[in-house]
Specification:
Elements (H helix, E strand, L loop, with lengths): L1 E4 L5 H11 L8 H9 L3 E7 L2 E11 L6 E9 L8 H15 L3 E7 L3 H9 L3 E6 L10 E6 L9
Helix pairs in contact: 1-2
């Protein structure tokens, strides 16, 4: 498996995976992914034998020492979950955030214990709760934060 910059040609596949991964909420469309790329956000894909099996995106605003990053999405094809793909995608996003010395934030469903554990292993802590964050399901989300690399509380 390789983690590479996401190819525009793979946005249709991203939208297909969104519908599988997030059926009870509002899955992103091809247009939503295209808009993220057009805005210059950092997106990577996990490719196995040239086929997209996962994707992840990050936005960074500001500059050090006040830069902030937000993980917009991480998705992994169901048949490849639990094999390290999500971890590899997250590490690629965090490397980009670390280059900018950005504090990184994300939202995660409160019932997604697997993802929460992965984020904690990568230095995130829960800092807030967003009631009914995911729509239309109404699921709650934790807001998690990872300090900027090189800070007293960062890596």
């Amino acid at each position: 498996m390789e983690v590479l910059k996401l190819r525009r040609a793979d946005l249709k596949r991203c939208a297909e995976l969104e519908r599988v991964l997030f059926p009870g909420d509002d899955p992103w469309s091809w247009e939503a992914f295209a808009s993220e790329l057009d805005q210059g956000h950092y997106y990577v894909g996990a490719y196995l034998d040239g086929r997209l099996i996962g994707y992840a995106g990050l936005a960074v605003v500001g500059s050090a020492p006040h830069a902030e990053a937000e993980v917009h999405t991480i998705g992994v094809e169901p048949g490849h979950q639990g094999t390290g793909v999500g971890k590899a995608l997250l590490r690629a996003l965090l490397a980009r955030a670390d280059e900018q010395r950005a504090t990184t934030f994300l939202e995660v469903r409160t019932d997604n214990e697997t993802a929460i554990a992965m984020y904690r292993k990568h230095g995130f802590e829960i800092v807030g709760l967003r009631k009914r964050y995911y729509q239309p399901s109404g699921a709650d989300a934790h807001t998690m934060r990872r300090p900027a690399a090189g800070t007293e509380t960062g890596e």
